[in-house]
Amino acid sequence: MAQAQSDEGRPPKRDAAPRRLCIASRTVRPVAAMIRFVAAAGAVMPDLERKLPGRGVWVTARRALVEEAARRGAFARGLKAKVKPPADLPGTLDGLLARAALDALSRARKAGLVVVDLAEARATHADGRVIALLRPSDGTDRGVEASRQPCPAERVEIVEAFTSAQLDLALGRLNVVHAALLTGRASETFLERWRILESFRADEPDERRGRPHDSTLEPGS
Q1: Cα separation, 105 vs 172, whole angstroms
Q2: pLDDT (average), residues 42-70
Q3: H/E element, 21
Q4: How far apart (Å, rounded) are the C-alpha atoms in residues 87 and 103?
Q5: Which of 76, 144, 147, 152 lies at a C-alpha separation of 20 to 30 Å from 164?
Q6: Least confidently predicted of 61-70, 168-177, 188-197
């Protein structure tokens, strides 16, 4: 009885990471691994910042699941509105995710958290401040080999999602063959957005297999 009384009035325990129901796979996932969508002017709009007002639905950040949600009419049902996804929603979303990540990388550069100089990158890595290494996806073998020198790949995250032209523009340099990302809030923001992009582009088996469905959560929020 004493234990029961002591528990009265306590707020219910909550998971540290918010979770939502994916309208395509019907599985519950952390929001960090998902993309939010809202209705706007009769269409489905991605809400990458998760800030747009109104009812929203969530889809796990996988191209195949976004395609499935569009094909099965899950957006209209989840949003409870007569909305139609754009003809190439997955392709449009890929571009938006890449743009969001590159914008975050540019902000990290302005915050002084990106090192392009090879000698400086090596010295910085010795101090333990390098958390990721960026390499152009279309880099030459010579450029890739050079990019391995600043910091061992097994000790940092390797980012190879962007072309040389994209990195040049984001970093304000020409012919970038490698860049070291230093620890800092702006760097973490970039990595969060890059991980969503990588997840979206990944080719994995249907994640619905073997995963329980939590029917207590609603898709909209």
Answers
A1: 11
A2: 95
A3: strand 19-21
A4: 26
A5: 152
A6: 168-177
